[in-house]
């Protein structure tokens, strides 16, 4: 079997729908040092936003660093992926 290596493949980047995204926030309010309070990690933004509202009400802090994380999958073009599957080549 001959193995071929493709030098350029126009992959697309897609969100991996099998993995849950993650949302979180950290309070960065403060003059000399940041508050540092954290929301914890959640699977949707609602609980993080509610934590921010409560933290602002309790402390008066109004500046937050928000982070969103997800997983990505690289997908080759459909025809190329099918060709590789049939021939046993790697893409």
Written description of the protein model:
This protein has 91 residues and is α+β, with helices and mostly antiparallel strands. It has one domain. It has helices at 45-59, 78-87, and strands at 12-15, 22-27, 64-69, 72-75. The strands form 2 sheets. The chain has a two-stranded antiparallel sheet. A two-stranded antiparallel sheet has the order 2-3. The longest helix has 15 residues, at 45-59. The relative contact order is 0.28. The model has no long low-confidence stretch (mean pLDDT 87).
How would you summarize the topology of this molecule?
Elements: E1 12-15, E2 22-27, H1 45-59, E3 64-69, E4 72-75, H2 78-87
Antiparallel strand pairs: 1-4, 2-3
Any idea how many domains?
A: 1
Strand order of the largest sheet: 1-4
Low-confidence segments, ≥5 residues, pLDDT <50? none
Order of secondary-structure elements? EEHEEH
Total count of helical runs of at least 4 residues: 2
Number of strands: 4
Distance between the termini: 15 Å
Chain oligomer state: single chain
- Please identify the structural class as seen in this structure: alpha+beta
In which range does the helix fraction lie? 25-40%
Cα gyration radius (Å)? 22 Å
Mean pLDDT: 87
How would a crystallographer describe the biggest sheet?
A: 2 strands, antiparallel
What is the overall silhouette? elongated
Percentage of residues in strands: 15-25%
């Amino acid at each position: 079997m001959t193995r071929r290596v493709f030098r350029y493949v126009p992959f697309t980047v897609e969100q991996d729908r099998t993995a849950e995204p993650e949302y979180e926030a950290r309070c960065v309010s403060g003059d000399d040092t940041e508050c540092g309070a954290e929301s914890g990690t959640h699977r949707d933004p609602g609980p993080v936003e509610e934590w921010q509202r409560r933290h602002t009400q309790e402390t008066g802090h109004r500046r937050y660093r928000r982070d969103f994380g997800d997983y990505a999958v690289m997908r080759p073009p459909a025809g190329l992926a099918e060709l590789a599957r049939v021939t046993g080549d790697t893409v």
